[in-house]
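Entry 14. Structure prediction run on the chain below.
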Amino acid sequence: MKKIIFSTIATISLLLAQNSVTNDPFSQMDKMFEMQMKQMELMQKQMDEMFKAFEKSSFKATPMMIRSSSILSSGLQDKGDHYEVVINVGKGDVKADVKAKDGILTIKVEQKQEKKENNSSFGVMQSFSSSTFMQSFTLPKDADSNKIDYNIKDGKMVVKIAKVKK
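Output returned:
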């Protein structure tokens, strides 16, 4: 982006210097426009290559909250009388915080592994492990943000959000 800005400034400066001789500020407009179009075409090619590389990669982004039958692609599933989110949290000491505010469900999970000790000729090595995960979801209009329940079992966290009764 900086290259484009500097090249644009240089192009305009060059054209202004040339135009000061002819006193016609519009004589070089076509050339300036042509140069800018070439730069934009180059940027478009670079962006196309970037997106092609992204499509070939193993990482695929999931659009937020697009309905496909009963599953919302954010991970929120419509179970009829409630919505449900299932998250793999792993095993160990897991603490969770689930909150809903202004139509946004936020799930925060903290996991700590106990210390491990290795005795060697160099001494005792101790290690601890800690990880934090946080994700937010846009709740559907009929989700009751006051009735949220969750449980953690066998390394999975299941969050249930009741629907507003009509």
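The longest helix spans residues 29-56.
Filed with the rest of this week's runs.
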